[in-house]
Amino acid sequence: MTNEWTQARIQQLIDDGTQESLTLEYKAADALSKSDDKKKNEVTKDVAAMANSAGGIIIYGVKEYDDSSKRHLPEKLDPIDMTKCSKEWLEQVIMNIQPRISNLIIHPVTIDTMPNGVAYVVEIPQSTTAHQSRDHRYYKRFNFESVPMEDYEIRDVMGRSQHPKIELQFEIHAIHDGVFFLKTYASNVGSVYAQYVVAKIDVPYDLFPPQPDRNTGKFKERIFNLDERYSYTEKNYGDVEGAAPILPSTSLKFSDKRLIKLFEEFNWENREIIWVVLCDNAPPNKGRIAITNIPFIDHRAEGDDDDE
Asked: Coil, strand or helix: which one is 6?
């Protein structure tokens, strides 16, 4: 995390229309109040939710648009009077979170549009345990909001320091006309290295070229845009050539799968890839992604004929 926060940098976020996300949230000046216990609860709720999720940044001193069509977009600087709500006071409020969040940083940024005006940029690391807010509840970030966590989610967060956590990412590469590959990467977003990884990946049947029937050797008839699915398994452990532990915050290229030649000609709307990963002694991790949301990387202009 950086400490180079300035008024110009915050203003640039506003000018660029940088939307709130899982790791970024804006709060107007009235979100802070020494006399309002409800607002103090909201501070601890939002900060704890960020730590319980992916970590991120909360900027106190930026107002969002009131217009529902521009929801979650920053409108303007909304400075806080530091004589009424100081950095030390904000730290004391955040310290009500249990257990306390290590390595959290508050950056006071001078805002020159009002006397004693500041914005507080709160940088929150992803934690290795679950944090409880001032109201004795656990929260996570979801769809730009802080929402209550389910019991299994709390257990999962508490296990971050004990287990690796593998997420799958996908890319579709266009090598040259009619040659497309689905590349799969296994990323360790936990804090413990992953030794044995097995992933079951479930895709629409018509995403890959036809495969011969194991018993007859004949190719199955291809009927596109059905709900039929195809599942396959990828693994990374001792009996796989080149297998190595996946260290925290690193990724491993898991597999390449050639796609149908007519990939670009079909409508993949509402079609998705579903996956589950088993890793060491960690609980199974599941995910899904729409095919239309997978990054598409086009190498055709490069004249690259490498099919890998």
From this structure: coil
Helix, strand or coil, per DSSP, at residue 88: helix
Is-cis flag, bond preceding 99, omega within 30? Answer: yes
Q: Is residue 296 one of the residues assigned to a domain?
A: yes
Same domain, 231 and 290: yes
Tell which wins on pLDDT, 283 or 57.
57
Amino acid at 230: Y
Average pLDDT, the chain: 89
Residue with tokens 């709160």: 122
Domain range for residue 92?
7-158
| Eight-class DSSP state of 219 | B
Query: Mapped to the 3 state alphabet, what secondary structure does 7-67 carry?
Result: HHHHHHHHHCCCCCECCEEEECHHHCCCCCHHHHHHHHHHHHHHHHCCCEEEEECEEECCC
pLDDT digits (tens, 9 = 90+) for 191-238: 788 999 999 999 998 899 877 766 777 766 665 556 678 899 998 886
Torsion sign across C-alpha atoms 38, 44, 48, 49:
positive
Q: Are residues 147 and 184 in the same domain?
A: no
DSSP helix/strand/coil, 92: helix
Q: What is the pLDDT of residues 112-150, one digit of tens each?
A: 999 999 999 999 998 888 999 999 999 999 878 899 999
Inter-helix orientation angle 37-52/87-94, to 10°: 70
What are the residues whose beta carbons fall under 8 Å from the beta carbon of 18, sequence distance 6 or more?
24, 74
Q: Total structural domains in the chain?
A: 2
Strand order in the sheet with 285-290: 229-236, 197-204, 272-279, 285-290
pTM for the model stands at: 0.58
**Domain C-terminal end among 158, 187, 216:** 158
Print the SS3 string covering 110-173.
ECCCCCCEEEEEEEECCCCCCCECCCCCEEEEECCEEEECCHHHHHHHHCCCCCCCEEEEEEEE
Task: Flag whether 308 is in a domain.
Answer: no
